[in-house]
Design goal:
Length: 71
Amino acid sequence: MKSILIKDTTREERIQIVKQSLYACGTECEFCSGCDNKGGGNIDKIYEPYINGEKEIAEINREYNSKRLIK
C-alpha cells in the first residue's frame, strides 16, 4: 500500500484518496447519514485541509472524533 502522507502524495492523489475513502459505499456523501455524520457538516469539506496539504488525515480524524465525543 502506498503512503497517504502529504509528503508522499500530490494534490490530485489526495483528492482521489479522499473520494475513494468517502464514497466506499458507492454513493456520494451529500445528505447521507450512513457513517453517522449527523450534524457533522459536509464530509468533503472536513478533508479539505488534507487535500490542500495543510493537515494529515489522522490529525483531521482525531480532531473530528474529539468534537463528536463532546456533543
